[in-house]
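Hi R.,

Here's the chain you asked about this morning:
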Amino acid sequence: MKFTNTLFIFLFVYSLSFAQTNEELSIAFIKKLERQQFDSCYSMFDTSMANKFNAAMLEKMWGSIPRYMGEYKGYTTVESTKKDSIDIVAVRCTFEKTKMDLQFSFNDYKKIIGMFFVPPKNKTAYITPEYAQPNKYYETKIAVKTGTMSLPGALCVPNTVKNPPIVILLAGSGPNDKDETIGPNKALKDLAVGLASNGIATYRYDKRTLVYGKDMKEVDLNAEVIEDALTAITTIKNNPNFKDSKIFIVGHSLGAMCAPLIASKSKQINGIVLLAGNARPLEDVVLEQYNYIFGLDSIDQDEKKQIEELSKQIKTLKDPKALKTAKAEDLPLNLDSKYWQSLVKYNQVQVAKKVKQPILVLQGERDYQVTMTDFNLWKQNLSDKPKNQFISYPTLNHLFMKGEGKSSPSEYDKQGNVEEKIILDIANWVKSN
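And the predicted structure, written out as tokens:
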């Protein structure tokens, strides 16, 4: 749930002349946006993607941006990189409240095939936590292969433990990498090296939406999380080094929400850990997030309109008939109907109540994305089983990193590490089970 950290605009766009560089094409597109020449922008769309968007939708999306970031002031720097043979250009845009990079992706024919806003790269580097003891573990690359797809993965193994218990780490929503990188922070990497330093192996991997997102026409909960998690379990079970090892799922945010469903589908799982997992419907949590963030200062008229619009989208979402025919732009977060249908069908609390494996629920009390309301719901519904445990931490945020006062999106840009207490509580619980 990082819509406040990365404002994704699911646009796919296209083309000018072969004489221009990709950087020039990107600037030309931005200038058209500045002049509100949306029809001209639309003429640059790739043919296959233009079928999904029109000039009116682009105008609506551009017009909604001030609600998030304040009025647009202009662009400054332009940087080019290359990833998997795709040229990427990032144009730094300045808004009244913040700065964001408008990132374009180009194919070999100088056609723009993707466009979305991302936060500027944080200059602060990741710092390995002090509790990591590299002399006690080693890391090797093992991919998660589901069908024809291959997701880069990392297996972190204690040096001297035979058949160690192993934890499969699941990231939150969005196209996360195996470390769940957010600014200078890598929550899943902290967990991996921390647990390995305490005799517990870990396995983590890039999400399918990161590796194959541009090729995925339809996404639901199964495609985003469940299928690859089940493949990861099989991968571990087929590894001779873990033949007799017990396997646990440790999910963060959306990964935690999905953990009960994964456990219900696999007899190989010996327990699950929910790190900031929402017990309430996702759309209700999103609405609460909007109100919280806008409420950090006085809520203006534009923000009120945005909350009203989201409330209207949620009303559509909760109507089964309306949901089936609704377009993505009429639903929360611009996610399509198929995705929301998969979420609506899934009641994580009811599934968790039927799960036979023990469950550990951990929650930061300063977390504004998934709150103590969710923690208390888990506790109310799962406390009847003695092996289930519930722990909250007064000073920790959504990333289980320490802070003071009210948590805010800007806190994620500060370098930190998952608190060692989280590592030790998970390690002790895993070993006891």
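The chain has three domains: 22-118, 134-276+347-432, 282-339.

Let me know if you need anything else.
M.
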